[in-house]
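Extended Data, panel c. Modelled sequence:
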Amino acid sequence: MKPEQIQTLHPVAGKTNKKIALDKYQTIKDQLIAILQTTQPTHTELMELLYQRIKDSFVGGVQWHGETVKLDLEARGIIERFDIKPEKYRLKQA
């Protein structure tokens, strides 16, 4: 039986993002939020921190899933990029 899927969103209007397994989505989402609760990393730093946290337990491409979920969280207004160079990420203020 195929695992339950979630259709992820894309922050750029008119673009569509991927469908991924819900359990993988939740794992990546939880880790990204945990990282962003304590730091405001660049894109490279965020993906490296994510990789270091789950590389030994995650089945699949950590970077690909990380990017897909990161875009979805941006589209849903949960995280945001802020305008400094290089761009950094943070949890969006409620």
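DSSP finds three helices and four strands in the chain. This feature is highlighted in the accompanying rendering.
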